[in-house]
Amino acid sequence: MKEFSGSGASYYDHYDQGVEGDLAFYVEEAMSCGSPVLELGCGTGRILLPLAEAGLQVVGLDCSADMLHIARNKIDAAPQEVQERITLLEDRMESFQLEQKFKAVLIPHRAFMHLLEPPLQAAALRNIHSHLEPGGHLVFNIVTPAVEEIAANTGQTAGLMQISDPFINPDTGNQVMTWTSRRYDPVRQHVEQYYLFDEIDAYGDLVRRAYTPLYARYTHRYEMQHLLNLCGFRTVALYGDFTRRAFRNEYHEQIWVVTPATTTS
Predict the structure, then answer these.
(1) pTM for the full model?
(2) 7-143+219-260 falls under which CATH superfamily?
(3) What is the mean pLDDT of residues 180-188?
(4) 12 Cβ partners below 8 Å, 6+ apart?
């Protein structure tokens, strides 16, 4: 079962609005670098479209055909000049090959965490390095769960479905009840999440059900720093939130701005 494919992809925008402040932050970072911009893990275009609306030439890449289909529908509804600034590609961030370099590469909303093993993370970073112009910026955010969160969702008691925030499907007017589960593997630093969406009509009848998994790997702050260094990057900034507050141990969001320091093999 693929992540946020099929029916699960259609609910994504209604359920997940990103991290507070991330949209404005990524647009500002991209504007400071200029065109062209590459967004990896662009999904349904939540950040991609505002980048193009701000006047940037942007390439959006994602490995989910269903998410890209939703993004394409949004782009088709945009003004012609915005459409002309956007290119969509289906590919993976660790293996894509493009015949151009970028002034900025963005990986918003923790999409880097979908690389589940360190060799894949390194492959992606080296690939990004080769696609950045000299002085270009890679900007991405990841999250490290609190120790208490990991402990509470590890072992035999983990993985139980819990009710989450319901929402209204604007296409149908129906309420969608959301159930989630989470299980951590602290040795591999993996987290498995599952989402169950139950769409209920005005009579209380279940009219649609979608089930989607989400797999991620969390990376600790100095582990991430070491990986970036190994892959030829130096750190420009590390923030703890999207107001640009400096990272501290009590902040679990890591927002990295890095630039190529050397060539990589």
Answers:
(1) 0.92
(2) Vaccinia Virus protein VP39 (3.40.50.150)
(3) 93
(4) 4, 43, 44, 67, 70
